[in-house]
């Protein structure tokens, strides 16, 4: 998969995406991520990319021309139109299901807004999918774009190693993850649950499933509706309700 991030702060994006698991995946070629500087496409002789809003008001608005030309150049380079996503608090909130769907695409481009936003005409022209990472406002779209790029990349084959596998973790199966422990077996007067020391694989799996169901039931009961639950799971949840 190829991800292109259109931003005024490519160094900020590149530095985050060069570290840890995503950095390793980029080096090994499991994912290609490019951070493209929108400013390189401005026709303004002072390299300006924004201007005051028509109608007055605070802040600056990103002009349409550099964004449009940046995206057009990307389309020419790839030879087709990548799926374009605009990070904005006005978009639909990102979910793990949408992340999974996006990870099946061959190309995505992520547009980061800044200042007071982007001239509406380029949004109308390019018709991006608008995605928010939550009901709060950040200073720009870069951190949201990094979150999207990270969450999509880690779903791709070869990005996570076997022991970093995502199949048991929170949200993947609409359930929150069970608690994890490592050495030492006793710390600060707190002991690792005995079952995890028992070496009994089936009992460990049962305990983990129940902890996962219990956490989801108490912390995010709304998620249970979308979860794939067996008769045994439902019986266990019923036992929690009567406790
Ligand atoms: N830009 C600023 N805040 C944002 C948010 N919550 N989600 C996506 N993009 C944003």
Give a topology summary.
Layout: E1 2-7, H1 10-17, H2 20-28, E2 32-37, E3 50-51, E4 61-62, H3 64-78, E5 83-93, H4 96-102, E6 107-112, H5 120-126, E7 129-132, H6 142-153, E8 186-187, E9 190-191, H7 194-197, H8 201-219, H9 231-242
Parallel strand pairs: 1-2, 1-6, 5-6, 5-7
Antiparallel strand pairs: 3-4, 8-9
Bound molecules: adenine.
Account of the protein in words:
Helices cover 38% and strands 17% of the residues. The chain is built from nine helices and nine strands. Strands 2-1-6-5-7 form a five-stranded parallel sheet, with helices on both faces. Strands 3-4 form a two-stranded antiparallel sheet. Strand 8 (186-187) and strand 9 (190-191) form a beta hairpin. Helix 1 (10-17) runs parallel beside helix 6 (142-153) and helix 3 runs parallel beside helix 5 (120-126). The longest helix has 19 residues, at 201-219. Bound molecules: adenine (ADE). Adenine is lined by residues 87-89, 132-134, 136-138, 141, 144.
Short key terms for the protein model shown above:
243 residues; alpha/beta; 5-stranded parallel sheet; two-stranded antiparallel ribbon; 17% strand; binds adenine
């Amino acid at each position: 998969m190829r991800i292109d991030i259109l931003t005024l702060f490519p160094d900020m994006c590149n530095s985050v995406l060069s570290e840890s698991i995503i950095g390793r995946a980029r080096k090994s070629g499991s994912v290609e991520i490019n951070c493209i500087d929108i400013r390189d496409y401005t026709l303004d002789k002072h390299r300006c990319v924004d201007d005051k809003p028509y109608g007055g008001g605070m802040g600056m608005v990103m002009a349409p021309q550099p964004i449009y030309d940046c995206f057009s150049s990307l389309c020419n380079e790839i030879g087709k139109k990548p799926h374009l996503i605009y990070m904005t608090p006005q978009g639909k909130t990102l979910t793990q299901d949408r992340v999974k769907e996006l990870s099946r695409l061959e190309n995505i481009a992520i547009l980061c807004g800044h200042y007071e936003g982007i001239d509406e005409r380029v949004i109308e022209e390019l018709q991006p999918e608008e995605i928010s990472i939550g009901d709060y406002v950040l200073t720009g779209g870069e951190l949201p774009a990094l979150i999207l790029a990270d969450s999509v990349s880690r779903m791709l084959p070869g990005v996570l190693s076997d022991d970093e596998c995502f199949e048991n973790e929170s949200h993947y199966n609409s359930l929150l993850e069970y608690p994890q422990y490592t050495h030492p077996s006793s710390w600060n007067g707190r002991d690792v649950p005995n079952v995890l020391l028992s070496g009994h694989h089936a009992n460990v799996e049962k305990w983990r499933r129940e902890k996962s169901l219990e956490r989801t039931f108490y912390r995010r009961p709304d998620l249970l509706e979308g979860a794939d639950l067996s008769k045994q799971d439902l019986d266990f949840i019923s036992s929690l309700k009567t406790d």
